TrEMBL record, chain A:
Main location as per UniProt: membrane
GO cellular component: plasma membrane
Keyword Isomerase included in the entry's annotation: no
Highest taxon in the source lineage: Bacteria
Organism: Bosea vaviloviae
SUPFAM superfamilies: MetI-like (SSF161098)
GO biological process: transmembrane transport
PANTHER family hit by this protein: BLR7065 PROTEIN (PTHR43005), SPERMIDINE_PUTRESCINE TRANSPORT SYSTEM PERMEASE PROTEIN (PTHR43005:SF1)
Protein name: Transcriptional regulator
Length: 307, 276
């Protein structure tokens, strides 16, 4: 009896250590490398930093960086605008194309499904830099194959990436090509996991396939659609790699995006203080967006429940 | 009705295979460009003499050490993926099954989610300053640490989902038999979540291998990874299209290997968050 309670006490202690020890690495990594950097940014954003042989010389300048950011740095704000246009347009098109394609394929035979999945996975798993390099070759003005095709059909050539009027659109097209397969795979899996009996039961009530889509399929698919949408929105706000290769933010500020401004100010121009201010404003902005989106979704859910 | 259905089926197939061609077309074109001389690419010659010169030049010429860049990518991605998997799996078991204090879970998962949503570039600058001050700039350590924190949230969420799928009765039964949590983890959770770890690991590896934003600013000439090297081909005075295409092809090899040998793990990882 005594040994048993001794054993129990030993197990209790081991378990306490396990609980602490198993969470500690994750907490330490996130605290040191993601929470501390935010405080570090806040501190640096109030300063002017010069590098002297590998060590930082920090001069405190108060809110000057923020003042400059909100009054002077028009490039950053062009980037904010472009990022929003890019994210909204690209993601909307991807959702429409991907979901429509999933609806079309749902009833198709499953022949060659694994080959199809393999092809659709391809753009998702290869490095985005490669996608950028690839499309830079395809969309080149003088010898890109897209312009060769246009010329073949007797159409005028377009300077896809070099013309300020078409550059952002070209970047959006590339992103749609890149990520539509992702939406397709996710929504197709969602469609195939739906309970077929619901559709059988609804057959009595719906008059045509449009009604079925509107009143049965889309409501049932809402969770999958929302999550796919969230995934895509998050990633398109982070966009950097492809644009770096495709246009480098140019011509002018035509394809400047937020990540680009931060990268340039921080690393090419060595203005650590301003870069930190930009990062901090971006973090706060995205955080506000996340909270807003969360509130809207949870309010809708509550309405759904009470209705 | 069934005739309509099968017609719709054929249409669906046509659309899907049509899109597959739109995906494959550019890839095949780049593949063919990687075997062309620069002059043939610039002239837009479709059928050009076959050459391996691009591959030879990126592998052993004085300006480029692409094999070394691939090696750097491999070191950083493999080590960071292993670390992420270990950290995420042990934490996932505790979060999912051992009821840690609510506020701990809330802050851990809440912050992980927010951090995952923030643009990576907003943190790279801060990491750069921190690592430079610690004398770690340009080292594997810096790249791996940044990759670990970058990949951790996703792996954590995936692993919590997978551990949740293991019936709680099993855990309770093992506890009644006098197992400590550590033993439960080793003999029960670990073997049962190997498939989930493969899925989370596949995604973590792909994301680390593809990373550009972090490596661009935290690596130096010796630790430069493959994506950064590809970008430098585009920044040369004259863009080296053939070499860029060849380097792109080589850096796609791990992705192709995943698709061929681990497709179901990649799919499982991608779908785990979205479809319940």
């Amino acid at each position: 009896m005594a040994t048993r309670s001794l054993d129990a006490a030993r197990i209790e202690r081991a378990n306490l250590w396990w609980r602490i020890g198993s969470l500690a690495p994750a907490i330490i990594v996130l605290a040191v490398l993601s929470i501390w950097p935010v405080f570090n940014l806040a501190y640096l954003s109030l300063a002017d930093v010069k590098w002297l042989s590998g060590s930082a010389v920090v001069e405190f300048v108060g809110l000057r960086n923020f003042h400059e950011l909100f009054t002077g740095e028009s490039v950053y704000w062009a980037g904010v605008r472009n990022t929003i246009v890019f994210a909204v347009c690209a993601v909307t098109l991807q959702m429409i194309f991907g979901f429509t394609m999933a609806l079309a394929v749902r009833r198709a035979s499953k022949i060659g499904r694994s080959v199809l999945t393999a092809v659709f996975l391809l753009p998702i798993v290869i490095p985005p830099v490669v996608i950028g390099a690839m499309w830079r070759l395809l969309l080149g003005r003088d010898f890109g194959i897209v312009n060769s095709l246009l010329a073949f059909f007797g159409l005028p050539m377009v300077d896809w990436l070099g013309d300020p009027r078409s550059a952002l659109m070209s970047v959006i097209i590339v992103d749609v090509w890149h990520w539509t397969p992702f939406v397709f795979l996710l929504t197709l899996a969602g469609l195939e996991s739906l309970d077929q009996e619901v559709f059988e039961a609804a057959k009595l009530d719906v008059k045509n396939s449009w009604q079925e889509l509107r009143y049965v399929t889309i409501p049932l698919m809402m969770p999958t659609i929302l999550i796919t949408l969230a995934f895509r929105m998050i990633l398109s706000f982070k966009v950097f790699d492809e644009i770096f290769l495709l246009t480098g933010g140019g011509p002018g500020t035509a394809t400047e995006v937020i990540s680009f401004s931060i990268n340039r100010v921080f690393f090419a121009q060595d203005r650590v203080g301003m870069g930190s201010a930009m990062s901090l404003v971006t973090i706060l902005g995205v955080a506000v967006l996340i909270v807003l989106a969360n509130t809207v979704v949870s309010r809708r859910r509550k309405q759904r429940v009470s209705a | 009705m069934s005739a309509m259905r099968s017609l719709g089926g054929i249409g669906g197939n046509l659309i899907a295979w049509g899109y597959a061609l739109i995906i494959l077309g550019p890839m095949v074109w780049i593949l063919s460009n990687s075997f062309k001389r620069q002059i043939d690419i610039l002239m837009g010659t479709t059928i050009a003499p076959f050459t391996l010169i691009n591959y030879q030049q990126i592998i052993n010429s004085r300006q480029s050490q692409f094999l070394w860049n691939l090696w750097n990518s491999a070191v950083v991605s493999v080590i960071s993926t292993l670390l992420v998997l270990v950290i995420a799996t042990v934490a996932a078991f505790t979060v999912a099954r051992l009821q840690p204090p609510r506020w701990v879970t809330f802050i851990l998962l809440g912050w992980a989610l927010v951090f995952h949503m923030l643009p990576t570039l907003t943190f790279v600058g801060s990491w750069y300053v921190m690592f430079t001050q610690a004398g770690l700039h340009g080292t594997y350590t810096a790249l791996i640490l940044a990759q670990v924190v970058h990949g951790l949230p996703m792996a954590l969420f995936l692993m919590i989902g997978f551990v949740m799928n293991i019936p709680n009765e099993l855990v309770q039964a093992a506890r009644l038999d006098g197992c400590t949590y550590a033993q439960v983890f080793r003999h029960l959770i670990l073997p049962l979540s190997l498939g989930g770890m493969a899925a989370a690991g596949a995604l973590a590896f792909i994301s680390a291998w593809s990373d550009f934003a972090i490596a661009l600013n935290l690596s130096n000439k010796e630790t430069m990874t493959a994506p950064v090297a590809i970008a430098t081909f585009a920044q040369e005075h004259q863009i080296l299209y053939g070499q860029m295409a060849a380097a792109s092809m080589l850096s796609m090899i791990p992705a192709l290997a995943f698709i061929m040998f681990g497709q179901r793990f990649v799919v499982r990882g991608l779908l785990a968050g979205a479809v319940k």
